[in-house]
Amino acid sequence: GWDLALSFWHPYDERLGLPHGPSDPEALADEVRQLGRRAVLLPGDLADPAVPPAVVGRAAAELGPISGMVLAHCESVDYSFMDTTVAALQQHLSVDVVASWQLIHAFAEQFIGEDGRIVAFTSDHVVGNVPYGASKAALDRIMVAAAVELGPRGIRANAVSPGPTDTGWMGDAMARSLAARSPLGRVSSPADAAALTAFLLGEEGGWINGQVLTSDGGIASH
Fold first, then answer.
1. Which of 45, 32, 34 is closest to 5 using CA atoms?
2. In terms of pTM, does the model score above 0.90?
3. Rounded distance, CA 214 to CA 162, Å?
4. For the packed helices 51-63 and 99-110, what is the interaxial angle rounded to 10 degrees?
5. What is the pLDDT of residue 222?
6. Is-contact 212 159, C-beta < 8 A?
7. φ and ψ at residue 110, rounded to 5 degrees
8. What is the arithmetic mean of pLDDT over 92-100?
9. Alpha helices, DSSP H only, in the chain?
C-alpha cells in the first residue's frame, strides 16, 4: 500500500557484473504502478555526498513527505585484510556509512507525523571482506543512535541482517554449500528479508526500535 521512490545506480551493477536486466528498475516501478500506487525512479551515485540529501528531497517533492525508508544500498567488493587499500576502505565507508547517515538525516529533517520507520540492511560478514564488514558494523551503531535520538520525533529505526541471500549472484556450488550449513536446509531468499521489513514498517512492528535483527534461518548459529 505504499507509494515508492526507488533509488539505483547502474554503473555499480555494471562494475561488479551483478545480475540485472535492460529494464531494471523500470519493470519494478511498473509493477508498483499496476498495483495502483505511485513509483518514481531516482538514479544517483551515493558515494557523492551531494546525492543522498538530493535523493530524499526529490522523493519528497514527487510523493510528499516520506514516512518510511529502507536502506538496501551498499558498496560490497571482497578484500582480505592484507589486500584492503585506503581507497577501497574509503569507498565502502562513503557509500555504506556516510551516505546512510545522510539519508537518515535528510529523512528526519523532512519527516512530518508521529510514525516514521527506517530499516537498514546490515551484515556480520567481515572475514575476507574487511571494508564491507567494517562499514556494516558502523552502520549498526548509526541505527542504534538514530533509534534513540530520533525516537522523540516519532521515528523508529532498526537494522536487519538477512545472512547470505540468493538474489542471483550465488552460483550453484555456493548455494549448495551454504544450504548445507543452514539448519533449515536452504539459503535466505529476498522474500524472507521482505517479510521482516514489511513487519517493521507496519503497525505490528511499531514497538520494535533500536534493534539489529538477525533473520538468516539460523545459519550464523550453526
1. 32
2. yes
3. 6
4. 30
5. 55
6. yes
7. -95, -5
8. 98
9. 10-16, 26-34, 51-63, 86-93, 99-110, 130-150, 172-181, 190-201
SS3 32: helix
Helix (H, G, I), strand (E, B) or coil at 49: coil
Quote the CA–CA distance of 164 and 132 in Å, as a whole number.
14
C-alpha cell, 66: 516520506
Are the C-beta atoms of residues 71 and 97 closer than 8 Å to each other?
no
Three-class HEC string of 120-134: EECCCCCCCCHHHHH
Q: Which three cell numbers stand for residue 124?
A: 556480520
Q: Which residue, among 169, 207, 210, 208, has the nearest Cα to 188 in the 3D structure?
A: 169
In the numeric block, the cell 546490515 is attached to 122
d(CA 116, CA 118) in angstroms, rounded, equals: 7
H or E segment to which residue 6 belongs: strand 4-8
Residues sharing a CB contact under 8 Å with residue 177, sequence separation 6 or more, in sequence order: none
